[in-house]
Amino acid sequence: MQFPIRPEMVLIDVDGTLVDSVPDLTFCVDAMMQQLGRPPRGEAAVRTWVGNGVERLVRRALSGTLDGEPTDADFDRAYPLFLELYADNTSKRSHLYEGVREGIDWLAANGYRLGCVTNKAAQFTEPLLRDLGIRDAFELVVSGDTLAEKKPSPAPLLHAARQLGVAPDRALMVGDSVSDVKAARAAGFLGIICMSYGYNHGQDIRSAGPDAVIDSMTQLPTLLSPATD
């Protein structure tokens, strides 16, 4: 892909892209484990497990592995505990990554239409974005439970494009994981830019083949065209 480009819409992921939510997620995982009489998992492990929604995170925490599955009984006991904990700890420790606010401000100032597409459930996404002061930057938010499918399915991205009346080949995705790359490719998006610092199960996101990898959203002006008027 030849940069700079001028998409009509930019969709941005939340966890690992806009927000470092691992501190809150780790608190909730470890508190859940304590209530279950089990040892804590710790932040390093949680960082490799996030990115596919809280249900998957709970399953990983219980099994101690990325692909493991707990028993149904264990999950049915643990999941409500986690939901209750996370409802009270959605944004107490989470924070915007450095450069996010500046990047969003630049996109808005240069006329880019902005949407948010995340695998996090709406009951957590909306308060998190509000508490961190960026909810109003987005015309729409597609959460993990908005549709029947989540990323890496292209469905959430295509839904956002339809809602805003933008052709997929005029839309850009900004994310941090292989799920974002797969979703953008399957949706026929113009491109996918990934953050180097995000959550990709411990793997370098460059191996997923995004169109560009940046260290901060303050670098978006080097890849996107400014307003022409």
Automatic annotation (TrEMBL):
One of its GO terms (molecular function) is phosphoglycolate phosphatase activity. InterPro entries: HAD-like_hydrolase_sf, HAD-like_sf, HAD-SF_hydro_IA, HAD_sf, PGP-like_dom2, PGPase_prok. Pathway: Organic acid metabolism; glycolate biosynthesis; glycolate from 2-phosphoglycolate: step 1/1. It is an enzyme of class 3 (hydrolase). Its EC number is 3.1.3.18. The keyword Transport does not apply. Keywords: Carbohydrate metabolism, Hydrolase, Magnesium, Metal-binding. Pfam families: Hydrolase. Mg(2+) binds at residues 13, 15, 176. The active site is at 13 (nucleophile). The keyword Manganese does not apply. Signal peptide: none annotated. One of its GO terms (cellular component) is cytosol. Belongs to the HAD-like hydrolase superfamily. CbbY/CbbZ/Gph/YieH family. Specifically catalyzes the dephosphorylation of 2-phosphoglycolate. Is involved in the dissimilation of the intracellular 2-phosphoglycolate formed during the DNA repair of 3'-phosphoglycolate ends, a major class of DNA lesions induced by oxidative stress. This is Phosphoglycolate phosphatase. It comes from Thiohalocapsa marina.
